[in-house]
Design brief:
Strand content: 5-15%
Low-confidence stretches: none
Mean pLDDT: 86
Order of helices and strands: HHHEEEH
Helix content: 55-70%
Number of strands: 3
Distance between the termini: 19 Å
Radius of gyration: 17 Å
Structural class: mainly alpha
């Protein structure tokens, strides 16, 4: 009998970002509609809502597929994902005109400027969060579904 390990890996991978995006969207809606804070995030919210859960699922399939060849810990494997996603996201944002890269920082939507000295620690914090999510949540779900 075929147990469909890649389907289970995909499903285990999409749980954490789907729940995280549900919380983020709830916070955005409350902030935007109840507190009347003008946040222009609706222009870019579709990108992470469509890409991040699918990327987690596909990355978990990749982990399952490469596990017989490489014994990389799941947390480290998950920490590589934001590097790939940030690179692809930055290239897409620059190509779409949402992001302008300057000598001292980046500018989003020609309105929000951030220096590189702020971007680097936030990116490293994001990598740490991905490591922990993959190590504890995705790893637990992989074990629970019998694919770890």
């Amino acid at each position: 009998m075929n147990t469909h390990p890649y389907l289970r890996a995909y499903m285990a991978g999409i749980v954490a970002p789907s729940l995280g995006l549900l919380v983020a969207l709830t916070v955005f809606i409350v902030t935007r509609l109840v507190l009347h804070v003008p946040i222009p995030i609706e222009r870019v919210i579709i990108f992470p809502m469509a890409l991040v859960p699918n990327a987690f699922g596909l990355w978990n399939i990749c982990y399952l597929w490469t596990r017989p060849y490489h014994h990389l810990p799941i947390g480290f494997h998950g920490a590589l994902l934001p590097v790939i996603m940030a690179t692809l996201g930055a290239v897409a944002a620059v190509s779409g005109g949402f992001l302008t890269v300057g000598a001292h920082g980046v500018t989003w939507f020609h309105a929000i400027s951030l220096p590189y000295s702020l971007i680097a620690p936030w990116f490293l914090a994001g990598v740490a969060v991905y490591y922990l999510v993959w190590k504890y949540i995705v790893g637990f779900l992989n074990q629970f579904l019998g694919i770890a």
